[in-house]
Every structure is written in structure tokens, then in C-alpha cells.
Amino acid sequence: MNGEKESVILFESSVNVRFPDDFLGRYHTHLYCHSGSMAFVFNDKPYVCKAGEFVFWFAESKLTNLAYSKNFKSTVLLVEKEFLFENIPDQSRGIDATLHSKEYPVLHLGDKKDKHRVLSNFQLLYDKSQQKKHLFYHEVLKFQMRLFILEMWHTFANEIENRKRTVQSGTLYERFAQLVQEHCKKEREVRFYAQQLHITPKYLNYICKTTSGITASEWIKRYVRERLELLLQNTQLNIAEIADNMGFSSRSFFTRYVKKVLGVTPSEYRNRLR
């Protein structure tokens, strides 16, 4: 398909319509499924998206085994990764949505209003991207991008709340995963999560290892590492504010912890972003 140099691409996808070459290398993908279903493996986990559901894939994610039903139809919006990142309104407010999307790329929209809002959001951003003769084109497009992100965060926040309400009846592993997402910013010990689930740390590690191949302590480190990276990428926050946000009593302790988790100090990590 044409227009691969565009910052925003909108198209209707079906069994016979392919994504652009190397689209995940350059674009974040937003997909609404109108009919049929789409199966895929995302970051080594299998998923299925059905009619009425929404999918979000981060750029540079590991996506394989795409397969479609015969009646599959969807609307797809691709947003260039740098363009989206540069226009995030307040990255600290979107961390929960970001972490949730990496773990659960399929969202279950509530009703027709949600569908209309998502598709309208797609169209508004695309339309603004095509108004290149507008005297204030870049300013208007950036503003629309920020509105788009806020609307998407609203969608993700609803999904997170719905999952919180339903996960209590799930398995111990599912409940643990939800607890880590909620509390990993300040709770980084297996003992805390085991106490919440009324089991021993040893048994929690066993459950996680047999279910996912990764221990509870490794899962906690993974979530903490992702949260640290997102906070450090948000240059609106200084390092002392991030340390306080994550419950560290001193900046020096925070620096040692980041060095242990990321392999570099907070300042060194930020210098690499420049």
C-alpha cells in the first residue's frame, strides 16, 4: 500500500489487505475489528481479537503468526512511533496504560458508544494529518495527536478497571499479575504479593514458574524495569521526583537500585536518550 512515509496511516483491513512492510518497525498499531476474528502471537503469547474488540501493538513489538478468519474486517490506524512519543501529554499519567497494553493487547469495548468514540478518534487524527495546506498544519496535528492519546488512555483505563473487577475470580497467577501492575511502583518484594494472596512466597514463585516459566520475583523485576524506563523517559520529571514517586527514601538508594536493574545510573540512562 502507498503512503508509508506518512506519520499517520488509516485503512480498512481484511484477509486480502496486508499491512505495510515492516510496519511494526516504524508504527504503533491501533486496530478495531468489525467482523470475524484475528489470531496472533504477541511477545510470545497467543491472542485472539474478535468482532467489537480493539487491539494495540507497540512499535517494535514481537508479532508473529497472524491469521484471519474468512469474514475478517477491521479498521487500522498506524501512528509513527516518534510522532506519537513526542506528543504524549504527560507520560507519567500513561504509564499504567502502557504497561497494561504490553501485557494485554486486546481490549474489550463496552458498547456502541465506545466503538463510535474509537473510530471517530481514528478518523479525526487521520483527517488532520491530511490537511497539509493548513497554515498551522504542524501545530494542529500535534494538538490532535495529544487529544487522540488522551482518548486512548480513557479506553485503556476502562479496560484496566474492568479487569480489576473480574480478576478476583481468576487464578492465583492472574490475581498476582494484576497486583504487580497496581503496586510494583512501591512494592518490589515477593513477600508483599504472597501476603495479599494468603500464600507463601515459595508457593507464589512455584505458581508463576509453572504457569509462565518465570518466577514471581522475575515478574516483579520486569514490571519495575518497564516502569523505571517510562519514568526516566519522561523528562518533565527530575530524578528526585521519580525516586519519591517510587517510594525510595533517598536518591542515592534509588540510584543504586536503578544501576542494579538497568545496568546504568538514572543520569546515564537519560544521557543515552539525548
TrEMBL record:
<dbReference type="InterPro" id="IPR020449">
    <property type="entry name" value="Tscrpt_reg_AraC-type_HTH"/>
</dbReference>
<feature type="domain" description="HTH araC/xylS-type">
    <location>
        <begin position="174"/>
        <end position="272"/>
    </location>
</feature>
<dbReference type="InterPro" id="IPR018060">
    <property type="entry name" value="HTH_AraC"/>
</dbReference>
<dbReference type="InterPro" id="IPR009057">
    <property type="entry name" value="Homeodomain-like_sf"/>
</dbReference>
<protein>
    <submittedName>
        <fullName>AraC-type DNA-binding protein</fullName>
    </submittedName>
</protein>
<dbReference type="GO" id="GO:0003700">
    <property type="term" value="F:DNA-binding transcription factor activity"/>
</dbReference>
<dbReference type="Pfam" id="PF12833">
    <property type="entry name" value="HTH_18"/>
</dbReference>
<keyword id="KW-0804">Transcription</keyword>
<keyword id="KW-0238">DNA-binding</keyword>
<keyword id="KW-0805">Transcription regulation</keyword>
<dbReference type="GO" id="GO:0043565">
    <property type="term" value="F:sequence-specific DNA binding"/>
</dbReference>
